[in-house]
Amino acid sequence: MIKYWILIFAALFALVYPLQAQLSEPLPFMTTSSPVAARIVDYEMKDTVTAPAALIRLPNRKIAYMVRQNGRLAPFFLKAIETGYWDTRYEKETNYDSVFADMKEMGANTAYVMLHWEDIEPADNRFDYRFADEIVAAAQRQELKIGWVLFLHAQKERVPTLNPETAWTFHLDDRDSSNYTMQWVKRDGVLYSNIRDILTYGVRPLHVYGHKEVFYRIRRMLYNLAVHYKDDETVIGVQLGNEEGFSFLDESDFNPVTAELFEEWKLKTNKTDYVQFKKEAIDWWWQQFTSAYHEGDPYKILSFNLDAGQAEAGDPERVRMTGTSAATYADGNLDAIGTMFYKNWGYKAIAGIDHRYNDSYNYKLPILIPSEIGIGHFNTSVNFRHFVIHSLERAAQGFGVYCYGEVRKELMELKPVRDDLVGMFEAISRNEDIIYEGLPGPGFVRCEVGIPGVQVSHLNVDGRETLAMVYFPEAKSFADSELASMETMKIKLDCTARVSGTYKIQVYKNGENINDLSISLQEADSESMEIKDVRKEDILFISVREHFPLN
């Protein structure tokens, strides 16, 4: 009887004081496993979740992100600005309260902050979150969320420090003046096998992720990072790797450790193609890394960021070199597609991720949250606006803009760029309820513009609320100066009812509300309105909300 009561007490104690999950043991290379993704919580169960953020399956089956606000999980559409290294980290005594207050003033709700492995683990198994915690505290004071952009590698521009060649993670296996924990490269017959030479040559140093000394330490670091911020309401997610990949030169990798991994892969898979080896290795490593993070925090989301969107665009050389492609997001067990949209590659990247995810963006992981939409010097104004619209029309759960250095208040020459971002954030905020919950397609009302070359895309929430987005795809073919010299036009917007009702319609041009009206429509009836002074570079949002059905 005593034993019986001991068992009952132990069970009750476990419910009240659940044990902290433990990091699983590392698996041998290419061992088959079931990767751990972020949990998806049914909408009806969201109030039972104590985590500060979670993926929620809405009643319309869309997967959306929620964060804790006033004690309860609430909808959160991510509007982020990336800090950038050269805009904050390398400035002396950066005032992050000022930076984050400025972002908040522009309409952002999230700061993407670049963080290196060595920032939180400056020495082997010595974790130090003082710098990261200071960033989090500053963001919390400004009521801003933080998404970490976690670099696993160093860069040729002497990042994360002026002396990255001293980073301990590249010296876990040093032999004969070579660093065996990093990927070696060869060009014109010259082999570069240590970090100092690679930095001098001008290539970013990447780890051999499968080296046993690197592999288990990345998993340990990610688990530690997850646990440290698990209950933090400011940190909402992590981008696991920034432009990471297998390599970035066509003549790589010549590290003997990599050669051994290739031979092991051939034996285990009965395959022989080195390019396929790169792809399967990257996918497997990222599955293990994401699983390690989610063993520490099963709710906050992980994204990824491939190099300039070129792999998603299907560029053969980029795919061959890096082992990544549009499929990497799903095959690598990411929770979010953190693709990058820059100029011409961005449009090709959209086509690439559409080909892979068009039927699944909204209903299963990974969901779409582009991490970098270039602004200012990195994109024309039209490119920026179009990439945001391309994200919204696919029912993305947010996006990030690169970067703060292109929109900060004191750079008066970039004020038009800042104003463009502010206007876009404002337009989104005014229609955020539809954008957050909406699915592609028209609702009870369809909007059309009878001019060749005009694109009208719709999001709707259970039919009753619709957001139509109107833009001119051909505008991307013109320079900003050419567009500015074109005459404005009048367009006729036709609103056709699929369901009878009285509807409130609001029109926004580049974020500014320019028209409000209420119309009553019978089924299949149309009402037209004229919108004046429209330029080809403009973006129009038309929100249609049902007041009440007609008798």
From TrEMBL:
Matches recorded under InterPro entries: GH
UniProt name for this protein: Glycoside hydrolase family 42 N-terminal domain-containing protein
Organism: Parabacteroides faecis
